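Issue 218. Parser rejects a valid record. Input:
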Amino acid sequence: MIRMKASNVLIILLLCIGGMQISYAQTDREELEKRRIQLRNEITRINELRISNQKKQRSVLVQVEDLGQQIKSTEDLIKLTNQQANLLTREITTNTNKIGALRKELEQLKEDYARMIEKSYKSKSQQSRVMFLLSSQNFLQAYKRIQYMKQYTNYRKQQGEEIKANTIELQQLNSRLVQQKEEKQKLIAENRKTRAQLEQNRKSQQELVSTIKKREGEFASQLKSKQSEIDEIDRAIDRMIRESIAKANKESGSSSRSTYELTPEAKALATDFNNNKGKLPWPVKSGVVTMKFGKQPHPVVSSVMVNNNGVRIDTDKGGKARAVFNGTVSEVQAVKGANKAVMVRHGDFITIYNNLENVFVKKGDAVSTEQEIGEIATSKTTGKTTLHFLLYKNDQKMDPAGWIYRM
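Output the parser choked on:
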């Protein structure tokens, strides 16, 4: 039997490992590119909204918030583009190493093939194949010589095909390397422009913030008044949840008012929901979180503390709210100051989709993951389309960021 050299086996193993790394890198690159496009769309949308609010002479606070969101998204875009460039650098290094290994293997294959041809030629000139067979001392020896000649012929053919395949792969790798280097240069150039825009936005933000500082007392009063309205909306939602739990338990014969009495099916659904923590889809197709969960300083007037029972997500005008998991609509209610709210129950977990202008579901409807449940309202004051998304376990508030994928 003809055996492969140990060095060739090692090279093939290295190439296989390199191929697996490229496959994983390709997946990462596609995911990063998808996120980069989303961020660019977010920045474009925020910029259009900011320009519109400037023309309509919206509040300075609104303009600073718009600018702050744009700066945050631009910073995220720069980080992500750097990740893409670094990933390309690693891919270029991997491909360069792979090209070096392939070239060495190709040279070795050609040398082996040349020696084989030379040996074959000399052997042929000394005695023919027929004489080689006829000189056999017995039938078994003749059979073995036939098998040897077959193996030798097949090996020559295999070596020729391997040289051809490696040459093609080398050409493809060289082409891919050129493309990757071009992609990297484009990303670097784009990052340069993005950084220039970021500095310009930061300068504009500083100018607006200095205006706010002169009137901080006035703006602080406005924000406190706004927080009072938000607190009233949150209290209305808390009441809706408590009443819904009490009503559901009464119908099932339970006296509990703070936790759901679960059927076996509801327990299974709650377990499934809990097992998907951190993997749930966003409640909008595309958007950016403009206010996180909990108590926090206002992003513009830091002397004022604001509280949020869920998260606020700005999305495109006409954007739709989507169910984050399978469940049943347990309530659809109008909330003063926040349009309509849809409450979806997932066992003893609850998701709330607030500030909907049009609702596509009704109480009792079964909904599936990512099903559209309503159109999000656009504020006439700020021009923003904002979903108020809340998550509860029974009547206990939870931070959606821990449950939604990459929120």
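Fixed in the parser; the record now loads. The chain has two domains: 6-214, 228-402.
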